[in-house]
Amino acid sequence: MTGCEGYVESASIGLIAGLYAAADARSTSLAPPPATTALGSLLGHITGGHIETIDAGPRSFQPMNINFGLFPPLASAAYQNADGTRLRGNDKTVAKKQAISARALSDLDRWIADQPARSGGGVSVS
């Protein structure tokens, strides 16, 4: 059991489990995906990383679908229109989600590129 909900989440965790199993079979290592990616943030939730950020109350685990609340906050949260005026309401929410998504894609590309090349395989997400 992985502690995630949903078909996409289950398939994603299955992908990561398969990549780790293949790395182990080849006696190599695989760096975890960055917490800024959907794979990394879900993996962090499942393995208990989220518990450290919650108050000192009793440890409790809840299965989770991927959502923007699992991602680490952005370094810069200033959202402005092209004319310099401040975004508000739904426009601000959309801009924040787009920025988190862009960071995730960039970090996932970097994670894939940083994995050691292996003959006949390696990390390939296309």
Walkthrough of the structure:
The protein has 126 residues and is mainly α. The chain has one domain. It is built from three helices and no strands. The protein has helices at 7-25, 38-46, 89-114. The longest helix is centred in the C-terminal third of the chain and has 26 residues, at 89-114. The chain is globular, with a radius of gyration of 17 Å. 12% of the residues are buried.
Brief summary:
It is globular, with a radius of gyration of 17 Å.
Offer a few descriptive terms:
single chain, 126 residues, mainly alpha, globular
Topology:
Elements: H1 7-25, H2 38-46, H3 89-114
As an assembly, this protein is single chain
Largest sheet features: none
User: Strand portion, in percent?
Assistant: under 5%
State the helical fraction: 40-55%
Global Rg: 17 Å
Terminal CA distance reads 27 Å
Number of helices: 3
Taken from the alpha-carbon principal axes, the silhouette is globular
Order of helices and strands: HHH
Low-confidence stretches: none
- Mean pLDDT across all amino acids: 82
As for the number of domains, it is 1
Count of strand segments: 0
The secondary structure category is: mainly alpha
